[in-house]
Amino acid sequence: MIRRPTWILLALFAVSLGAAWLWQRSQENKTEEQPTATPAPRLLDLESDALRDLLIEDAQGNRLFLRKLGTIWTHERA
User: Over the chain, what HEC string results?
Assistant: First the structure.
């Protein structure tokens, strides 16, 4: 006949084994639900040669003028 403490230890082992199995399943579900990265939307859909000059103005009236010379962008205060 198995003594009472043995039954208690066997029950604790079964409960801990079940808890470990449930925890492992929850971790597997978390890795499957992670979102994938989406590409950032484009502000303008232009070819690289279509844009040569760009004027940026903020709310205070400060202006920045950009001009493309070949492959290099230069800036001037407008």
Answer: CCCHHHHHHHHHHHHHHHHHHHHHHHHHHHHHCCCCCCCCCCCCCCCCCCCCEEEEECCCCCEEEEEEECCEEEEEEC
- CA dihedral (42, 44, 50, 53) in degrees, to 10, reads -110
The count of other CB atoms within 10 Å of the CB of residue 40 is 6
**Cβ(68)–Cβ(52) under 8 Å?**
yes
Residues 6 or more apart from 44 whose CB is under 8 A from it? 51
pLDDT, tens digit (0-9, with 9 covering 90-100), for 26-73: 887 666 566 778 888 887 777 777 888 989 899 998 889 999 888 888
